[in-house]
Input
Amino acid sequence: MNKSILRLAIPNIISNITVPLLGMVDLALMGHLSSPVYIGAIGLGSVIFNVLYLSLGFLRMGTTGFTAQAFGKNDKQEIAHGLYRPLLIAGSLALLLIILQIPIEKISFFLLNGSADVKALARKYFYIRIYAAPATLGLMALMGWFVGMQNTQIPMYLSIFINILNIAFNLFFVNVIDMNVDGVAWGTLLAQYGGLAFGIFLLLKNFRMHLLPLQKQVLLNLEMLKRFFKVNRDILIRSIVLILTLSFFTSESAGLGNRVLALNSMMLQYFFVFSYFMDGFAYAGEALVGKYTGSNDSQKIKSTIHYLLLWGFGMSLPFILAYGFFHNDLIRLITDNTDLIASALKYKWWMILIPISTFAAFIWDGIYIGATASVAMRNTMLIASIGVFLPAWYFGSQYWGNHGLWLAFHLFMISRGVLMTLFAPKALNI
Output
């Protein structure tokens, strides 16, 4: 079981870790410019796309769960249409985002806090990056299908390619031709389309034998569509609540001033570093639990859960040590602003606690996705966000300001892990 977990997890860890590293490069490029407003603009602009794309994360998560179960059943027709269906939906949703870009921008910046300078730069970032939507959503569907097919090496190659391309474009636009947030946006857009082209190439090269001719009656099968949208509806609600909570965190940071927004944006990067690392094990859980759910092997499901949680706890320990002993160095990687570096010391312990307070939630996410236990995922997220995060923020921020905001964040993540542990026997039928 450990070999199976590591075979799937290690390539995912390598590919996932490039995502927050890209975010850190973006912030570092902005952090060495003349003003902290550039960091704030990237942080605020990224919030909008986090809301959009993580809300539509069912295109990856749902695709993985359904494909893994079809793989476990050896249902060749559903394996193929398990790719065609989400690709069709991804294209339709991307077109809708581009058509609705103006109202999306207006609503987003009405809801988000931030200074006029930060918002002006963030708008420029938004109106460029929105045109990457077809590539970004198409890649979600492809990535989910590859993982469901028990192949995590292709997503690894794909993620590394996209992020190296993105970093190269960003360095060129910002350092060579003196652009700022617009250069970061153009770099992301070009890298996403380059990645989509590479993903299609890898699909045809490695999985052509699984791409059975598209059959309209199978693609539009009413029972499968009902199940697809029922599961993904709950994943969508869960994802929206999660990203709205994180977006609320960023927006409240902006309300505390440009310095706090820049500081919290930097610290969140190390939350994302750990989350993407841990998602490597979560993706292994998606693939294995999905496969064993498809083959009705409850004993293997229990074994997978046991070992995944042990790996999650074990991997959190070196991150705690790294965040504790190298805190200053990690902040200096992003900025050379002495005021920001000094301010970060006041919040050191919140960064150190990130791994231990979050690992269980990340692992359980993968397990629930593999089992397509979307109702329980939705319910635990709603309870953690509305019942834990908001009350903790309301009372904590009144007395402790930014410390209260970070306390609410940690209680939110801890409660997610605890609730999913309690819900698991019924939700997973184990």
In short: The chain has a mean pLDDT of 85.
